[in-house]
Write a sequence for this structure.
């Protein structure tokens, strides 16, 4: 299922829910006669509210479980075939093959990385200054995977690029005025 389909589905569901709620309100207004005593009306609203709440919980839980099957991350049991280091800094990305063997500040990576397609890759993501967000996007701006880049911590992100092409790294956490300039590229061959 592609991104647009998911987005349209979400829009459709919200629209259907909005129509349902409006119809319910209209129904309540139309069916409540002026002579109806307040107690009865309150009971009616309360009954509707609790049913609505239960229905909402069921839909939310079912939607959550269903959407979990679309998680792009590899199963914990899969072993990554190649490892890459990613160091975030204000306001650039330093990336390179292999493990990080120096202090993050001393690491000299590139904001242009070439990786193979069809292999499970591990990105060990850290930061040399403040919190950043490492987000991998395809050429059409769809997010594929992400993790936090935190100073003092290494967050492994396992991801397999199935298609060759050009991918973008965007920072996903506000980290200063030039935050939106914090971009990098991954070429998948
Ligand atoms: Cu780094 Cu925003």
């Amino acid at each position: 299922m592609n991104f647009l389909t998911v987005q349209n589905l979400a829009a459709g569901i919200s629209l259907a829910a909005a129509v349902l709620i409006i119809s319910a309100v209209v129904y309540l207004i139309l069916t409540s006669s002026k002579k109806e005593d307040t107690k009865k009306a309150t009971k009616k609203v309360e009954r509707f509210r609790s049913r609505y709440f239960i229905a909402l919980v069921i839909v939310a839980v079912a939607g959550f479980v269903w959407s979990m099957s679309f998680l792009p991350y590899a199963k914990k049991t899969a072993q990554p075939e190649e490892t890459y280091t990613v160091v975030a800094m204000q306001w650039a990305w330093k990336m390179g093959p292999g493990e990080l063997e120096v202090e993050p500040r001393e690491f000299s990576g590139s904001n242009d990385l070439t990786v193979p397609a069809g292999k499970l890759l591990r990105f060990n993501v850290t930061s040399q200054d403040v919190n950043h967000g490492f987000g991998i996007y395809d050429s059409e701006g769809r997010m594929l995977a992400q993790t936090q880049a935190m100073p003092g911590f290494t967050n492994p992100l396992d991801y397999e690029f199935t298609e060759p092409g050009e991918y973008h790294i965007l920072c996903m956490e506000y980290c200063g005025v030039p935050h939106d300039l914090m971009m990098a590229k991954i070429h998948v061959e």
Observations:
- The two ends are 24 Å apart (CA to CA).
- Residues 88, 91, 132, 171, 173-175, 179, 182 surround dinuclear copper ion (CB under 6 Å).
- The longest strand covers residues 82-89.
